[in-house]
Amino acid sequence: MTTKPRRGRGATHDPANRFEPLEVDWEEPPPEKVPTRYYRDSSRSAITYNSSPDVGFDASLNPYRGCEHGCIYCYARPTHEYLGWSAGLDFESRILVKEDAPELLEGELRSEGWTPQVLALSGVTDPYQPVERKLALTRRCLEVLARHRNPVAVVTKNALVRRDVDLLQELAQHRGARVYLSITSLEPDLTRIMEPRTATPTRRLDAIRTLSESGVPTGVLVAPVIPGLNDHEIPAILEASAEAGVRGARFIVLRLPGAVEPLFLDWLDHHFPDRKGKVLARLRSLREGDLSDSRFGRRMRGEGVFADQIRGLFQLACREHGLDRSSPELSTESFRRRPEQRTLF
């Protein structure tokens, strides 16, 4: 079956699901334009927990599973295999929607069993992907968090986050909000084929400016750093982000867990065949000869001389633009388990 880029999609096809014992090889390729379908997620809790020591949070909130942004490198793609689907086109075209996430969240924050802590929004897929403009699940969850003054850390690639500046500003007054905009490149053409349904770099910088001017602590996440493709942009991204008002910065080196690896390699074949050898050679230099490393503490940074060069370049640019200072920690001091009810009289 031929695999070629699909309009508005990152993946070119649906690779086999590692959990399925049988694979059906259809003769016809996917259509030129793959439609997005939405499904009801019947999960009975809004908050999920993890024990990973290197992600920076223990609890997260994910209104959506799957992500229409279609970022080819997304580490979350293999999570769709747990649903019986594929990490490829399925991940970006079959989106599960947790319609009652705000109500579930309200119940969990009111529960005596909830220990106030920072919630990541979200830990897996982007809370501001395109359908959020219509459904507003993320906004409704932020309304719940604002009522309870429970701190939240938002990570997104979408400028739609500006819509919710009022709620984020309200939380920030109680040291209860921080937003990280992920910027992978300042080149619109590269962004379009690497992250096909995300906001342009200019709009992300505009979102940073809006949030920062509104008093919402905002940072930039340079992620993923792809050696041989966008690593040279680190200083320019940090400079542009500092000018827009960010207060902190982080970076993550490309990870290729499970089915993400063949999808990324196929993407390189189609879009950057001339750079593929260089990209893969540098990735292997970070991973002791492998393309990926799942070990905690190493999977997001890599090791070796080239990893040190990336880290050094990032740290130098941070110092130059005043982004090497630590940001104030989010606080749970203002948390309210049962907010006061407004009356009509």
Which terms summarize this structure?
345 residues; alpha/beta; seven-stranded mixed sheet; three-stranded mixed sheet; 10 strands; 32% helix
Major pleated sheet: 7 strands, mixed
Shape: globular
The oligomeric state is single chain
Task: Write down the secondary-structure element order.
Answer: EEEEHEHEHHEHEHHEHEHHH
Span of the ends, CA to CA: 68 Å
The order of strands across the largest sheet is 2-3-6-7-8-9-10
Q: Would you mind describing this structure in some detail?
A:
- It contains eleven helices and ten strands.
- It is 32% helix and 13% strand.
- The model has no long low-confidence stretch (mean pLDDT 92).
- A seven-stranded mixed beta sheet has the order 2-3-6-7-8-9-10.
- It is α/β, with parallel strands linked by helices.
- It is globular and about 60 Å long.
- The longest helix is centred in the C-terminal third of the chain and has 16 residues, at 305-320.
- The chain has helices at 89-93, 101-110, 132-135, 137-148, 165-172, 188-194, 201-213, 234-244, 260-271, 276-286, 305-320, and strands spanning 37-40, 47-49, 59-61, 64-65, 94-97, 119-121, 152-156, 177-182, 218-225, 248-253.
Write a compact overview of the structure shown.
The protein contains eleven helices and ten strands. With 345 residues, the protein is α/β, with parallel strands linked by helices.
List the helices and strands and how they pair.
Blueprint: E1 37-40, E2 47-49, E3 59-61, E4 64-65, H1 89-93, E5 94-97, H2 101-110, E6 119-121, H3 132-135, H4 137-148, E7 152-156, H5 165-172, E8 177-182, H6 188-194, H7 201-213, E9 218-225, H8 234-244, E10 248-253, H9 260-271, H10 276-286, H11 305-320
Parallel strand pairs: 1-5, 3-6, 6-7, 7-8, 8-9, 9-10
Antiparallel strand pairs: 2-3, 4-5
